[in-house]
Amino acid sequence: MARAFTPKVVTANALIEGDVVYLTADDRWSRDHAEAELIEDEAHAQLRLLKAESQKNIIVGAYLAEAKPGATGPEPIHFREAFRTRGPSNYAHGKQETRHV
Fold first, then answer.
1. What pairs with residue 39 in β-bridges?
2. β-sheet bridge partners, residue 59
3. What would the pLDDT profile of 40-75 be if each residue is shown by its tens digit?
4. How many C-beta atoms lie closer than 10 Å to residue 57's C-beta?
5. What confidence category does residue 81 fall into, taking pLDDT thresholds of 50, 70 and 90?
6. Residue 80: phi, psi to the nearest 5?
7. Could you tell me the pTM of the whole model?
8. Residues 66, 11: contact at Cβ < 8 Å?
9. InterPro entries this protein is in (predicted)?
């Protein structure tokens, strides 16, 4: 029996800066997970992933990551994705300095 589809967001890394980015419903790349498009349909998720993968001049390593609805937008489900929302962990500036999660 096939596994039920769970909501996803499209995530990747910005090609130049390397920052984690998320595809929004209006086709922008945002560094804020809460702005990501929460995709609840498997076919739509595959189309959005194909769109992302076609933007090789902007991003690298696009994939679908599980997420859930939250009060201010999608929230990551897995530890890896929650960790990625905080930015690089090897220095205390940028996202690491401003977030105390």
1. 8
2. 14
3. 999 999 999 999 999 999 999 999 999 999 999 999
4. 7
5. very high
6. -60, -45
7. 0.84
8. no
9. DUF2849
